[in-house]
Amino acid sequence: MDLYAPTVSPLNIDRQLQDTVGVTATPEVADAGANDTTTMFWGNWPATTHSGPTAFQTVNIPSNQICNGAVWCWYSVTDAIGNTSYSDVAKPTIITTGNYPDKPDVQPAGTTPADGMNVTVSLKNNFNPDLTLRDSDMVTVSWTIADNGSSQGVPATPAKRTPGSDLAGGKLTLAGLKPAPTANQYALVRFDVERTQFSSTEAPDRYQKFSSDAVAVSGSTLYPQTQNKLPAPVFKVANNVIDLGQVTGDIPAQIPSTNLIKFNNQVVLFGLGFDTAGTVVPGSYWTQPVSGIFAPYDFSVPRANVAVVPNGGHYLIHYTVDGASSPTTPSEVKQTSSPVHLQTGTLWSWGDAEYGTIGP
Fold first, then answer.
1. CA-CA distance, 170 to 264, in Å (whole number)?
2. Are 97 and 17 in contact (CB under 8 A)?
3. What are residue 22's phi and psi, to 5 degrees?
4. β pairing state of 206-211 and 59-60
5. What is the mean pLDDT of the chain?
6. What is the β-pairing status of strands 185-197 and 159-161?
7. What is the pTM of this model?
8. What is the mean pLDDT of the segment spanning 331-353?
9. Is the torsion defined by CA of 103, 105, 109, 110 positive or negative?
10. 258 Cβ contact list (under 8 Å, min separation 6)
11. Residue 334, CA distances (Å) to 121, 126, 218, 279 in order
12. b (16+ CB within 10 A) / e for 322-341
């Protein structure tokens, strides 16, 4: 019996799935029998079986089984006398669906970047509360580090682990990951969880990869330095989230109190937005020179420059004083409508985030 890979729909021209509603998998059988039984397998989720006249009907995939990442989809056909055949495997990647595990929690492993980062992951998510991390899952943490002032980020060597007995409360911590961002660097951290059920027969393996949201981490935030340094600017928004449904008008921010800004210093404010993949969002760049100020100093980032950042992306601000740069401060952007998703790219930032020292 010829069993072609199931047709997964709807896919884009790059064979990627970008939907969670209305997703289907259809058996493709060249010589179907009236008394056959067909079983459709989607990742590691419970299989769907149809028999008799309805054996080869399209299977609806529940939205809570679809997650950014990848999935293997295949089916088996058993005839009336018990012979079973297996189809080829469809392997679509799944992107920008809005279904993904929560971003990892990143903490310093010590007091300096040389100590690395502690990254804690879980499968807590926004679409299926029953999805939890298993001790046999393969967890891969990936991160990119960008030097301020450079347009190119450098990917670190990913860290891979199976939780095993270290799985505690549904979470796994990968400790001391290096390199960590220094005070003048920025990192974008994410993770993948791969779940494979290996077959002991001729049946294909069952596989799904769950790809998380990403978190932006400033080295100067992980490893703060305070002596004779410019303070990082702050967004004057609740929980450091720019909720465009709650904030009216431009986005309020502030340069905190410091004696390193004098009336005759030239101060320049900067802002830039990134999507969830770390790509610079066109139209988000903003800058404004100011002079004759003292700190604390309140300012506003134009709403139009922030509003182009898609939901879950980040808007970054920093400032310079006579050319010396403050640290960069990121804030997550929350949109009230569906975001515009951009292509995956490389994160970059700018300036010298190691609190530039003023004077000779």
1. 55
2. yes
3. 80, 20
4. unpaired
5. 88
6. unpaired
7. 0.65
8. 56
9. positive
10. 230, 231, 295
11. 22, 15, 20, 17
12. eebbbbbbbbbbbbeeebeb
Q: What is the pLDDT of residues 1-24, one digit of tens each?
A: 668 999 999 999 999 999 999 999
What is the identity of the amino acid at 95?
A: I
- 33-72 pLDDT, tens digit per residue, is 778 999 999 999 999 999 988 889 999 999 999 999 999 9
Take residue 258 and report the two structure tokens written for it: 């410091």
Nearest Cα residue to 61 out of 28, 26, 95: 26
Gyration radius of the chain's alpha carbons: 25
**Which residue type does 335 have?**
Q
Residue with tokens 């990254």: 119
